[in-house]
Amino acid sequence: MTPEVEAQLTESVREAVRQASQELRLVTRDDILAALQAEGQRAEGEPPVPDEELGVLLDTTLAGAPGLAALHSLTGQTLYHDPALLSQTYARILDRRSSHVVLLSEEIRANSRDYPRPVPVELFEAAPFDLTPEEIDLALKALAASPDHQDITFTTTPAGVVYLFSTLHLERGYADFLAQRAESLVMNP
Question: What is the pTM assigned to this prediction?
């Protein structure tokens, strides 16, 4: 394979990942390989690149390409995205949307740990989560029944807004205070 063909293929790999990221999608190695094969990658006057050689170049590009990021999926696959277009956090949310229990528990724990703050249940109805109230209700029931998620609990503000938090990272009294404070900020812009 000539250096020109290799450079063209490397750019095609990056472009396939960028395109998916712009569309708010994560892609697997096989997705990228299929896109390259469909494109019929070759320079003018060059024979097609054999699939085996294309696969090796793809693996090399994905392993060391600046501007590409990898995420280990819940499915066990490695998913790729362009962090300039799709952040690691957003990519993780997209991957976890297939398991509402994992999605909710990870987001609730992360918000309790990193910010620290409880999150309103309605957050999960908005983008990028886009869950229905029924899906949220089923996930919350599953969380409550799971021994691995006993730290996930809730507080209700005087106005009736339900906030979720993790007792691993927030004490109940502090979570109550933060939820009421967040509610008062919404009411008093």
Answer: 0.81
CB 35 within 8 A of CB 20: no
Q: Report the half-sphere exposure of 119 (CA within 13 A, side-chain side).
A: 20
Residue 19: CB atoms within 10 A of its CB come to 14
Question: What six digits make up the tokens of 135?
Answer: 């899906």
Distance CA 158, CA 146 (A): 28
Note the maximum CA span of the chain.
Answer: 73
Contacts of 65 (CB under 8 A, 6+ apart): 10, 13, 14
End-to-end CA distance of the chain: 62
Mean pLDDT score, 95-121:
97
Task: For each of the domains in the chain, give its residue range(s) and CATH number, in order of start.
Answer: 3-93 (1.10.10.10), 97-187 (1.10.10)
